[in-house]
Amino acid sequence: EMNHVANVKSWNFLKGKKDAPNYRKATGPKKCGNCKAWDSSRTKDPMTGYCKMYDFNCRADHTCDAWVGK
Hints:
By secondary structure, this protein is of the alpha+beta class. The protein contains 1 helix and 5 strands. β2 and β3 form a beta hairpin. Mean pLDDT is 84; it is low at 1-9.
């Protein structure tokens, strides 16, 4: 259910999104934006960051089952 993600340009994004376990919109406090793997310096959009674990750009308001607290 990632039809709201726009401008998907790289194969790495698609591969990473597929590999991240249960990647989805967050409904609780565990969000990509506060995960240890989140790197906001790699993108210009504050709602988008780079996931160092799965090698793709993810959204701050999403999560996956591999979330790790800082």
